[in-house]
Amino acid sequence: MRLAKRNITKAAGLIYVVIFFVIISATVWLSYINTTKSLRQELIYSNTALLHQVMQKMEMILREVDKGALNLLQESETRMFMDGNYNSELDRLMRFDNLIHNLENMVNSNTLIHSAYLYSYGQKKYVSAYTATDEESFFDKSWKEQFDQFEGYYKWLGVRTLEDKSTQFPVQKKVLTLVRSYPSVTSPSFRKGALIVNIDEAMIYDSSLNEDVRRLGQAFIIDESGQVISHSDKSLLGQHIADRSEIARIMQSGGEGNFTKTIDGVPNLVFYASLGYTGWKYVSIIPSLQLNRELLTVRNWLLLIALFMFVAAIAAVFWVNAVTYRPFERFVRSINRQLNSRNGKERRDEELGNLETAKGLFDSFLEEHDSMQRQVRQSIPAMKWRLISDMLMGYRNTYRDVKPSLEWLGIRLYPAHYIVMSAEFDQKTRISAKDLPLYAYALSNVAEELINAESQGTAVEVVDGRVVIIISFEEEDPHSNILRALSVADLIKAFVEEQFNQTVTIGVGRQYKELEELHKSYREANEAMQYRILLGANNVISVEDIEDFSSQHVYRLFDLTEAVLDAVKAADVVEVGRLLEMLFQQAMQESVPPKLLKQICMQMVLRSLKIGSDIGLSTGVLNEGGVELYEKVDCAENAVDIKRDITGFFDNLLARITEKRNNRGSNEMVDNILKYIAKHYVHSDLSLNLIADTFQLSVPYLSKIFKDYTERNFTDYLIQLRITKAKQLLEDGNDKVAEIAVKIGYSNSHSFIRIFKKVTGMTPGEYREHIILKRSMQK
Q1: Rounded to the nearest 5°, which phi and psi values hold at 663?
Q2: 572-580, long-range: CB within 8 Å, 24+ apart, which pairs?
Q3: How many CB atoms lie within 10 A of CB 420?
């Protein structure tokens, strides 16, 4: 009997072990295959998106440089330099001074630009931001041979080594060069000259190939011939690497894509994309080990879980085996006792024990069943969130594939005609972290009830209290369906305000027919909700209600930002405040896109930081404030908050500039020059050359000490002085604009009006009306 017991126990245990091992192994393997497939797709998508982001940022930088080059080529001073036609020697000197000033502004306005200069084929001369010289004595001629062979209007040259010998301390730089012909649109045989703009390769590499791309592997740029344009390894710059197999494959493929390649014995994943503007290729090479790190983590966790489950299964085998064999043991023992004529009381006691054991097993089974049901119910919200997130991101975009999951989770959706709404509580910082998820959960439930009353849809919290609502319609009627969606949004908004005493802003996307386009409606809903900054909280904002923002409005805003920066240079606190007020008023009246408003504000901050750095303010302190300010502006929920933070920044910066200037020492020579300018500014022929002759100084030296002392070049100082005097005349008298122009040193009233508007943002007539209105309001 003992032998039978041992054989039955071993056989049953072995069978149980094999069954558990097969089930656990199959489950873990299928989970690993499904999880790694999804993760690999997400990793490839993320790295491709990162490369696209790099490419778009680079194109924006290059086009901004090209835009500045085109603007400079359209200036009258450029035309007269290329043609060599001047009215007089004095006119030539003034035009040259203005041209040098324009080039200097171009270089200073963009930190990526290393240098810029013009070349005239007719005069065989160069003019740069520092000086004008003949072709033979200029330091850079290598661009000309490449550009003369090119048939187009402009050319981005490959990386070059440039040593600017015109400066006091020549430094070699690796630069990328843009060459634009003059006139801007002409054939090579009719070119009169060219504008050459050199960009610092190291700075453009740091600003475009961001840390997220570089930390994973190599990231570099090559041109259409395989020459390295930008790379972390500066020894490779300018080298042709088209003979490398992975580069050759990229150049043959064109467009964009990715492939796996073993390089130096290491498997790598190669991503590439092309920039249509320049024809350059953007390449990111990531070791497979680095890319698969998350996959290895998933695998290790699954193996650990499998090991734990297997150990638990073995323990369960012994327990189940013992429980299963015990009735047989009792049965044999009972037979033996009956054969031995045991008494009836013992038999009743033994039967009672068997009943209690069976009852215990049954109770344990019911408890396990209830526990599993509770676990399934608790995991439904997480599974629902995962499914909706995959649909919104476009990972699961076929209705036939997601239908079983939707039915299992109890989500009802029609197979077509979808609209996505994105709802977010206003002033979330005032809602406690404990209450925010409860509000979002209640909002989701209310939204589903309102949707399913007439249509079908679902709602789920995606992140930090933001709720995404998907509505599907049975009939294809975009106009009617949008109205129904807006009606639901209004009901949701009213419910939140009435029941929670909170406000919510809801963005509504367009209707799309197929599930694969659901992510477009989701993106549009989020974009519409960003207009809360301008339109205010507690609104329903449809993407179709947002008007296009014209480029003409952009230029007006850019003019105002330039005026703000000029006022910062002058440390004019009142003028800076007035111009900022005008900028934000115009932005709100014309519904400027929120992203653009934030970009314009941060551009003003960065350029004003450069102004502070140029006069010797602590760059570290200023940059620290800039980083904190960027976070505030990026998280701002309305234009009022942005205006408050930006105004506070400029108040602090102007206080520092004023303090710096008050602590500056005296320069007797410059003081005498300033007195001379204050006395003779009314003469239209006042120039840097005239002052240099008067004080027996060289023009370059005079320009340097003047700028070191006043923090501005001579032209800017003279313009600011004349405009200040013009403001006084406009405020205190009734002289005509033409008379005022002559009194402050402008022989041409049109030039005076143009310069006055560029500096102040208003024409002289508008400024006078503004002063009159202001005085009448004070009365």
Answers
A1: -90, 0
A2: 573/651, 573/654, 575/760, 576/650, 576/654, 577/647, 577/650, 579/761, 580/643, 580/646, 580/647, 580/650
A3: 27
- What does DSSP assign to residue 545? G
Tally the C-alpha atoms within 13 A of residue 452's C-alpha that lie toward its C-beta: 13
Cα 646 to chain centroid distance, Å, stands at 20
Instruction: Note the pLDDT tens digit of each residue in 158-195.
Output: 788 887 665 555 667 888 888 988 887 777 777 888 99
Name the pLDDT band for 197 (thresholds 50, 70, 90).
Answer: very high
Residue 551: φ, ψ to 5°: -65, -25
Query: Is residue 239 within 8 Å of 245, Cβ to Cβ?
Result: no
CA–CA separation, 267 and 261 (whole Å): 6
Mean pLDDT of the chain: 78
Residues belonging to the chain: 779
Three-class DSSP labels, 70-134 = HHHHCCHHHHHHHHCCCCCHHHHHHHHHHHHHHHHHHHHCCCCEEEEEEEECCCCEEEECCCEEE
pLDDT at 346: 45
Integer Cα distance of 365 and 676 in angstroms: 103
Reported as a single tens digit per residue, the pLDDT across 524-559 is: 888 887 777 666 678 888 877 665 544 455 556 777
Q: How far apart are CA 69 and CA 261, in angstroms?
A: 41
Residues 6+ apart with CB under 8 A from 441: 461
* Cα 597 to Cα 504: distance, rounded to the nearest angstrom: 23
Task: Please give the Cα distance from 507 to 468 (Å, whole number).
Answer: 10
Tokens found for residue 374 = 């509770």
Q: Higher model confidence: residue 510 or residue 25? A: 510
Contact 484, 457 (CB under 8 A): no
Considering the entire predicted model, what is its pTM?
A: 0.38
- Say if CB 283 and CB 271 are below 8 A apart: yes
Confidence band for 343, pLDDT divided at 50, 70 and 90: very low
Enter the tokens of residue 481: 């369906």
Contact indicator for 721, 745 with CB cutoff of 8 Å: no
More confident residue, 78 or 351: 78
Residue 348's pLDDT is what? 45
Tell me the C-alpha distance between 44 and 38, whole Å. 10
- Tokens read off for 86: 């001047």
C-alpha dist (Å) from residue 345 to 285, 327, 335, 677: 83, 19, 15, 128
Instruction: Indicate the burial class of 746 (C-beta count within 10 angstroms; 0-12, 13-18, 19 or more).
Output: buried
Q: Which two tokens stand for residue 274?
A: 């092309």
How far is the C-alpha of 249 from the C-alpha of 240, rounded, in Å? Answer: 15
DSSP H or E run through 373: helix 344-393
Report, as an integer, the average pLDDT of 637-664: 78
Structure tokens at 42: 């997400």
Is residue 256 within 8 A of residue 248, CB to CB? The reply is no
Q: CA dihedral in degrees (614, 616, 619, 621; nearest 10)?
A: -140
Residue with the two structure tokens 């709802």 = 423
- DSSP lists the bridge partners of residue 192 as none
Position 545, amino acid: D
What pLDDT digit, counting tens, does each position of 52-69 carry? Answer: 778 888 888 888 888 888
Cβ contacts of residue 462 below 8 Å, gap of 6+? 385, 388, 389, 392, 468
Cis previous bond, 287, omega within 30: no
Give the pLDDT confidence of 215-228 residue by residue, as tens digits: 556 788 888 888 88
Q: d(Cα 515, Cα 411) in Å, to the nearest integer?
A: 15
3-state SS record for 455-513? CEEEEEEEECCEEEEEEECCCCCHHHHHHHHHHHHHHHHHHHHHHCCCCEEEEECCCEC
